[in-house]
Write a structure and sequence with these properties.
By secondary structure, the chain is an alpha/beta fold. Helix 23 runs parallel beside helix 24 (652-658). It is globular, with a radius of gyration of 27 Å. The structure holds glutamine (GLN) and zinc ion (ZN). Residues 432, 602, 642, 644, 727-728 line the site of zinc ion. Residues 432-434, 485, 491, 552, 600, 602, 642, 644, 727-728, 730 line the site of glutamine (GLN).
């Protein structure tokens, strides 16, 4: 039984790659220095995997920016604007990814987008109708040599040809990108021949597109591709992950590949269908250790399930992580201050390799003392989890009824009550929540965190910032104010830190894109709210003015998606727990006299499953969670939500079902096009389509915003419209924000005058 690692995080357990990259980008180090950091990281990561008994070591999982970009460069798919005519090198990559590099001309970066249903972002390859594919970068082959020189058996890992095409976009004249498949396959053949010449036996081709619903043409592309690649003088492991591929079982089982990898963490039920259809020599790699989450596995249960298969398949069964470990933090060992009861629940990338090793031992020699110890550890972990359930919370959830999910009256009744209370003008102006997080604010927080500032001083200083923020908004003449979120460093962490059942690591970073990493909170137990989280700040801000100041919360669905969530209960159940915690906060804000409360749900759409047929179920519970969080208030309390940039065409019914009194969205770049979905649906509630692109330092003019509001008014009745920026302003500075908001208010006044 071989242990199969699909890929290891590249960033380094202390984010060494991030810091080396940023240093290089700032011009403070040479390419050679960056390369030597990278090489050392690869060496360490291979060594860890080898130490855990992994024989075939992944090569090509490392990337200076993104593994899809590495492949594009290898295939010679570099947009002309980023190429300087010479050979591909690191700066070529950085120009594609960031629009600039220490050398070469600046040019707009390639588009970056989410990788399937993960929080990882890849650079979208740009293909032209006459696209050529030629091996243009030696990096992958050099890494193979590098691994071999260290005494390892290298297993190159790259995206398969069909998924590569699927993730690409076409540029120039419209054409069907599948027409490029034959040329692409020739290049893959050349790459595989090079690997074979290097002595490589196994190559892993990742085809996560198989987890999607694919039309006939794309299904056929798999037959065509693997029919051609079959002749490669080495063995191919076709890897699928992130979801079930059972809907493509007959297609997949008929492909002439030496091995298939299945993600049995997200879709354990698909195993049987594939086992039955395995070809005589074919290897089955079972992804049973979760590459998407941080929890230690129930190895005893996994071993029980796999035991018959292990007997049947013998060494044709490989034990594997469900997908690359890219999505998990690197090493639990560096977490020295984590509470032991939480630490005992966790396994990061390195620990997951150990789990593979332990699993193999459980299957091969279940009677040994060490195997028994593993089983005992798994059992006691499960028992502890079960005992940790909060009975009171369960009872509260059981007692929920339909009425708890709905406001007291329908929107029209609420609208009138709210209008009578707030008497807002036509086209009310507001902002999305945060104001500039200045260096001074960040400095305050870091000194407070280090214990250099006591609570009272910290609070007082932040109150001063809040006061200043309110005064500026009053001077600008904005109708509905915000307190500015100066006390928050992150919209999820701020709440996570105050909720019971949510924990934090110090080094649990995961790559989001390039050098950018996120450190998601860990939802490890039942979530409850021990005390008010935002009421003091909201009350303080409201005490400074007679104008309404919005209470500002992060919604349950977003907190869930941006965290590592436990797996012993369903995501739906966790969302319900979070929703109740937020609901209690909403009600507390209302009791404190806050009349308008915003519940941000920017990650709402991120949770959509890969397969459309699963969407309805997700949308049902996600909408329910939001409604539960919002519905505890009286008619005259106004609930807002904010969703950043999002497509609404295919989810508008669900968005309407959320029944927020006001929704704000990002629409300035699309020039209000995203409003079409609302228009077509006759969306009944109020909408604030963003008129100010906050991602750009440019200050939008009055005319530009007048024209955007007019465009919005062509789609949505004026009476339903608000005027606001696209998103929060925390990444901008006051020199930009103040004139931009002044123009926004002027644009609104101009339109009100004309009416
Ligand atoms: N209220 C948050 C802010 O303004 C919303 C951020 C977001 O949508 N991502 O910062
Ligand atoms: Zn936003």
């Amino acid at each position: 039984m071989r242990l199969n690692s699909l890929g290891f995080p590249r960033i380094g357990r202390r984010r060494e790659l991030k810091f080396a990259l940023e240093k290089y980008w700032r011009g403070e180090s040479s390419q050679a220095e960056l390369q030597s950091v990278a090489k050392e990281l690869r060496r360490i990561h291979w060594q860890w995997q080898a130490d855990a008994g992994v024989e075939l070591l992944p090569v090509g999982d490392f990337a200076y920016y993104d593994q899809v970009l590495t492949l594009s460069a290898t295939l010679g798919v570099i947009p002309e604007r980023h190429s300087d005519g010479g050979a591909v090198n690191l700066d070529t990559l950085f120009r594609v990814a960031r629009g600039r590099a220490p050398s070469g001309k600046h040019a707009p970066a390639s588009e970056m987008t989410k990788y399937f249903n993960t929080n990882y972002h890849y650079l979208v390859p740009e293909l032209s109708e006459d696209q050529r594919f030629d091996i243009a970068w030696e990096q992958l082959f050099e890494e193979v040599t590098e691994a071999q020189a260290l005494g390892h058996t290298a297993k190159p890992v790259l995206l398969g040809p069909v998924t590569f095409l699927y993730l690409s976009k076409t540029v120039g004249a419209e054409f069907d990108r599948l027409t490029l498949l034959p040329a692409l396959l020739q290049c893959y053949q050349a790459i595989l021949a090079r690997f074979a010449a290097q002595g490589v036996e196994w190559v892993q081709l990742d085809e996560p597109a198989l987890a999607l619903e694919l039309d006939d043409n794309w299904q056929q592309a798999f037959n065509q591709a693997y029919g051609v690649l079959e002749s490669a003088p080495l063995r191919l492991l076709l890897a699928t992950y992130y979801g079930t591929v059972a809907h493509h079982q007959s297609l997949l089982s008929a492909l002439p590949v030496a091995g298939i990898h299945l993600d049995l963490v997200t879709a354990p039920e698909q195993l049987q269908a594939f086992v039955g259809a395995l070809a005589p020599e074919q290897v089955l790699s079972v992804g049973v250790i979760n590459g998407r989450n941080v929890w230690a596995a129930d190895l005893d249960l996994v071993a029980e399930q796999l035991a018959p298969l292990a007997r049947d398949l013998g060494d044709r069964l490989w034990l594997a992580t469900s997908c690359s470990l890219l999505h998990t933090p690197v090493d639990l060992e560096v977490e020295t201050v984590l509470a032991p009861e939480l630490k005992s629940l966790l396994a990061f990338a390195r620990q997951k390799l150990t789990e593979l090793q332990e699993l193999k031992a459980l299957l091969a020699a279940p009677e040994t003392e060490s195997a028994k110890a593993v089983v005992a550890r798994c059992r006691s972990r499960r028992a502890a989890r079960a005992q940790g359930r909060n009975q009171q919370l369960s009872a509260r959830i059981d007692a929920l009824s339909a009425a708890d999910y709905d406001r007291n009256h329908e929107f029209e009744v609420r609208r009138q009550a709210q209008q009578a209370r707030f008497k807002l003008p036509l086209l009310p102006t507001t902002t999305i929540g945060s104001f500039p997080q200045t260096a001074a604010i960040r400095n305050l927080r870091s000194r407070w965190r280090k214990g250099e500032l006591d609570d009272a001083v910290y609070t007082e200083q932040l109150q001063q910032v809040t006061r200043d923020t309110i005064e500026r908004q009053l001077k600008l003449g904005i109708d509905v104010l915000v307190h500015g979120e100066a006390e928050r460093n992150d919209m999820v962490e701020y709440f996570g830190e105050q909720l019971d059942g949510v924990g934090f690591t110090k080094h649990g970073w995961v790559q989001s894109y390039g050098s950018r990493c996120v450190k998601p909170p860990l939802i490890y137990a039942d979530v409850t709210r021990p005390k008010a989280m935002t009421v003091d700040w909201a009350e303080y801000a409201q005490s400074l003015t007679d104008k309404p100041v919005k209470g500002m919360l992060t919604g349950p669905v977003t907190i869930l998606h941006w965290s590592f969530a436990r797996e012993d209960i369903s995501r739906e159940q966790i969302a319900t727990q979070l929703a109740l915690a937020i609901r209690d906060e909403v009600v507390a804000l209302e009791q404190a006299g806050i009349g308008i409360i915003q519940i941000d749900e920017p990650a709402f759409r991120e949770g959509l499953p890969l397969k459309r047929s699963d969407w309805a179920h997700y949308l049902d519970w996600a909408v329910a969670a939001f409604k539960l969080s919002a519905a505890g208030v009286r008619d005259e309390t106004q609930i807002h939500t904010h969703m950043c940039y999002s497509e609404f065409n295919d989810t508008i019914a669900a968005i309407a079902a959320m029944d927020a009194d006001v929704i704000t969205i990002e629409t300035s770049r699309s020039r209000m096009e995203l409003l079409n979905a609302f228009e077509d649906f006759d969306y009944p509630n109020e909408i604030g389509p963003g008129v100010y692109d906050i991602h750009s330092p440019n200050i939008p003019t009055v005319e530009a915003m007048v024209s955007l509001i007019e465009k919005a008014a062509q789609k949505i009745p004026l009476r339903q419209l608000w005027v606001n920026p696209d998103c929060g302003l925390k990444t901008r500075n006051w020199e930009e924000v103040e004139p931009a908001l002044k123009n926004m208010v002027d644009a609104t006044r101009e339109l009100r005058r004309r009416l």
